[in-house]
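worker-03 picked up job from queue 'complexes'. Input manifest follows; two sequence lines, order preserved.
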Amino acid sequence: MISKKLAGVRTRIAPSPTGWLHIGTARAALFNYLFARRHGGSFVVRIEDTDLERSDKKFEADILEGLSWLGIEWDEGPIVDTRNYKGDYGPYRQTERLDSYEHYLNKLLEQGRVFYCAHTAQELEIEHRAQMETKQALRHICAHRDASNTEGIIRFKNTASGCITFTDCIRGAISFNTELLGDFSLAKNIRAPLYNFAVVIDDKEMAITHVLRGEDHIPNTPKQILIQDALAFERPLYAHLPLILGPDRSKLSKRHGETSLNAYRHEGYLGQALVNFIALLGWNPDDEREIFSLDELEKEFSLEKVQKSGAVFNKEKLQWLNGEYIRRMDRETLAANLYPFLQESFGNIPQDILHRVAKIEQPRLKTFADVQALPFLFKDPSYEKELLLWKGIQEPVEAATHLRAIEKILCDIKDFEKTLMPYAEQHGKGNVLWPLRVALSGQAASPGPFEIMYVIGKEATLRRVRNAIALLK
RNA sequence: GCCGCUAUCUUCUAAUUGGUUAGGAAACCGGGCUUUCAAUCCGGCAAUACGGGUUCGAUCCCCGUUGGCGGCACCA
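worker-03 finished. Artifact:
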């Protein structure tokens, strides 16, 4: 089942398929992947689908596709026949590992380290409220911990006292008073593990050496350590990553807008640009470079340069970065990426037109979807007559005169700029070129007239110029 | 409420083991180039949360305060 074994570092990403791949999960995956690669180790994906109610295969597919799109590949897992993601392996799934959890749960039961708690939700609620009122830590120290119930949920018999300290690779020593944890839950039943328990078993059996995860997991760590100690498991190294925040500095969530990674793909962002951007959210190189390929990141990533505090997701900077990537693309690739967006808005377009659009728009685009805002490249525009007048104060007669001159001298597109410019310089470039550009685009801001003509051709140009002349009458 | 993490421009961040005019990037503003919008080039704005220490000297080390965030499920 495990097909490739590499020595040394082993990391993992453990998403639960209860929602679309979140930006934060993607970044945690990236950091785990980079760390493993940097040290010649392995990176695995484990789908934490123990919550049967909320888990959904469509979310699992979205997560795997999203990781592949970013170029993040995992090094091992079950071999699969059909798959909708790159790579040779499927992910591990917790629902396929229930025997393991049962095994260790039984072991703990025999040792008397865990017990069945028969308290009802209502009883727990009352206890909770009483603790609130008396300003106590919220925890459940179960009266059933020494009873021999065989019903109810399985809890850890937390008899530890004093502090547990672990060394976080990013933050240093972190201590917790174990008594404040209470008898925390491990499983709904012998074959239905809960998060904290399943994680410990899986990380052990998958031989995970470094757990890099969001800092929202810091409070889970002492519980997991307690379980590890009870089972005599070796403790992995922990590194808690800073959270990605929304503009209000709270954990990035739906109410801040789009948090799903694949939404960015559909908005016309490049996987490489996203990787570059999220890598820089909480990590930085030694120097002032901003542009990094995945390969470069693999060589340079280090936990020492990871930030301690959260980072606001800054969409403007992502757009800038995406624009930089677009500017560096070869024309062929850009055209291929543009096509689906153009097709969606304007239907099928010929290859030569596609390439011309790519050529003129390359310096301007921030995302591929930006081409959808250029309808005049595909159909004659309509606009207010006044827009044709240079600076709004040009006489309609003058604009019309220049457009008629243009109509007369209009020739092959490739010679047209050379032919027209002497005339434009003679009469004032704005006086001539502004009405022309508006006649072609119908917009106050657009690519230049020669660029538009390069795409729409001589015939459409002539037609639009004549339309403008008619409008000015 | 309890526990924990955290603190440099609006945002992402840099500043060898304490000595810098506190640097870069995005955004924003101004200018060059330009028919417009971009792209590009040049310039500008803008920060060490507060209070104590330690020190000849603290962004940096220590303590406290305040703020921000996270966790406290039969979710993960």
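worker-03 released lock.
The first helix of chain A runs from residue 23 to 38.
The radius of gyration of chain A is 31 Å.
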